[in-house]
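Here is one such tokenized protein:
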Amino acid sequence: MKRNWIRVFAALACGTSMASQVVCWVSPGGRDEAAGTREAPFATLERARDEIRARRAAGTLPAGGAEVRLLAGRHARTAPFVLTAADSGAADAPVVYRGEPGAEVRLSGGILLADPKPVADARIRARLPAAVRDKAVAYDLSAAGVTDFGDYRWNYEHAIQARVARAYNQGEATVGSYAPPPGDASAGRPDLYANDRPMTVARGPERDEDLLKIDRLLGATYKTRNGKTRSKEGHFTYAGDYPARWQGESDPYVCGSWSCDWVDQHHRVEMLDAPSRAMRVSKPYIQWGYSPRQWFYGFNMLCELDRPGEWMIDRPSRQLVFCPPEGTTRVELSMASRLVEMAGVAHVAFSGIIFEASRSSAISMTNCVSCRVAGSEIRNVGQYAVLIQDGADCGVDACDLHDLGAGGVFLVGGDRKTLAPSRHYVTNSKIHDFGLWHRMYRPAVWMTGVGQRVAHNHIWNAPHSAIQFFGNDLLIEYNEVDHVCRSSNDCGIFYTGRNATLRGCVIRHNYLHHVLGFGGRHCRGIYLDDSCGGVSIEGNAFWKITWPVFIGGSAQNTIVNNIFIDCPGAVFVDDRGSGWQRPHIDQRIAEFKKRGTQYGIPFTEPPYSTRYPELADFAKGDWHVPFGNRVERNVFSAWWPAARSRATTGGSRAT
């Protein structure tokens, strides 16, 4: 899926700056007392922002808009660059923050570490494996002014996930995610980068095929979910003797998919008894419990720092211990919580900039209008690349987003009661190597709301989904996706579910290939989960995908004009609403009979009844069965039968 990036960038430039004029210049070597010219640039973005405010107040801004030009170099940030409504442009006079064309312009939230020393602390040397003992180096974090080490147990942007979980009945979005306790003022956990590449907190086992397994459950309280017994408490024995090496570590942690392969959580190890192979992890426990044969690994331990590229912070000595890869010349530790925060802003753009080394999401737009990030690179950040919440007409275009601790772009916008669209977008971008820390339910793009578009992107290399979409009139088209869902099962490349009022979503002309799930087990291409409905899947190409289209009890979907090549199956439909999901469906039916709504939406009344006339048939149908699905005019070249169904009733058809 080739794209003419030069043409895209040229169109962007013409659209945002040809009519604008450079108002001021900013350089890492500048002075805020200077004139702000190219010859005498300012030092900070804040000084340039304030200059634009002052000129606007004086009536001396150019009529066609204003541009702040960032000169080459590393523009260091210790706190977010904040823009408010007072910093807005206009439709015919935008404000653009642009990197100097042809130059490398970095907006960095990290601190460059210097003066590494051989590891001298006897306790640390004794814990390090012999192979790296004389190769590892130590950085004195106290001397570097680093006092905030974060806490691996907490998700410092938990509220982002919780908003979706509450609004769309998607509890999985927050399983394993907990907000820090009151009083925790940390900017988040730090990450380490060497020569602009992310390094790994010392962990073991290293390989997925060697992951550790829970053996027996020792918890006091048990529950059964879908026929699987789980302990509510994180107390268990493990198989094998590998964790015995962890005894004596000062701050050991574990991360695992403790109950199923699509949720995970980081825990501190509270108790480890090697002779009995028993382990207890610290609270809070994962909401779905702990199950035998589920996997985990250990991290943040000196004994696991056994190869180049691994590191950890030894809290007792306040030293960062690191085994640098050969050729390492530049080491950076993330410090700033965020790089850019925009609230209530209109007609502002960022272009031609490398954003890097924030502990939380790099850029946040809240209640903004016609703002965008374009022609830029966002890399090496602790959470999402860009958060866009509410507002309208905001997006990301022609960007490269990679090496992200969570997902790529988080979109929220539009009014589901009135079906007013937000018109947010992610287009012409590359999004890859994401979900490095928060691995599950942090997709390349999270679409939530009404009237959004994700198009002409290439998405690859991630542990979980590429796109999660929950809303109405969402359009996913002309994307290429490959090698995602690499550490999870029962997940989807594109995923939605649980709400039949999420209508008008179209998935068309995408190319999905080489997605086979974790450990060779099942995952899905397009996953319509737990009785949602009304999705159009048309003109897509699937190559080497396990279950390319999976309809989990969902009704009134259309699957037409798709191509399935070398897939072990093509379209799967089940009737879970008649089985294990029946109690949940009965709750939806009871709500409809009592209030005429599903999840609070009166879908038999305008605007839903007029926008989606098929909902009249849905209201009269049997919600327990996947009725009204159409599978027509598709081409199959499969190892297994082209279409399978467990549904015995319901009126779905394949032709």
Observations:
- The longest strand covers residues 265-273.
- Residues 45-58 form the longest helix (14 residues).
- Confidence is low (pLDDT under 50) at residues 1-18.
